[in-house]
Amino acid sequence: MEQVARRAGVGKAALYRRWSGREAMMLDLVASIEFPIIAAPDRGNLQDDLLAYLTGAAHLFRRPLARRLLPELYAEMSRGGALGNALRDKLLGLKGLQLQGLIDRAIARSEISPSTDLRLASALIVGPLYWAWIIERRSFEGASLSFIAKSLATALSTSD
Questions:
Q1: What is the rounded distance in angstroms from the CA atom of residue 156 to the CA atom of residue 120?
Q2: Strand, coil or helix: what is 92?
Q3: How far is the C-alpha of 88 from the C-alpha of 149, rounded, in Å?
Q4: What global pTM score does this model have?
Q5: What is the CATH superfamily name and number for domain 37-158?
Q6: To bridge 37 with a disulfide, which of 94, 109, 154, 155 should be the other Cys (CB 3.0-4.6 Å)?
Q7: Cα–Cα distance between 97 and 120 in angstroms, integer?
């Protein structure tokens, strides 16, 4: 709170008049921020939809602010609590809508089974990029993204 007050050019008392503490301030901030959500456009088939989504994710992960903030946000989500839950609801809810659309289109095109578990399929889609980006601190480019999209399409089309 001290750093925020200093940066805002106000005393800590001004912050505490508005928020009871760090978590309350962060919850307010989370509610007001428009987080960039990776689009999952319809490209006509599952593999191309996946490639478009993965390319969008890779593009987002190359942005300096995203490289700094997103790992912290994911770490906070893993800790739970009011702030972690608010972040999870906002980020995963918005991301989930995009991935649900991608999976629903693939089901409608009979590319994957209607019994596909949405949460597991979503985790499978984002897992390789998040692992490489957050844990290994590396990113994917063209050919690697194509390989991942093809592998994911194969894995999802054979699941039941």
A1: 10
A2: helix
A3: 25
A4: 0.78
A5: Tetracycline Repressor, domain 2 (1.10.357.10)
A6: 94
A7: 14
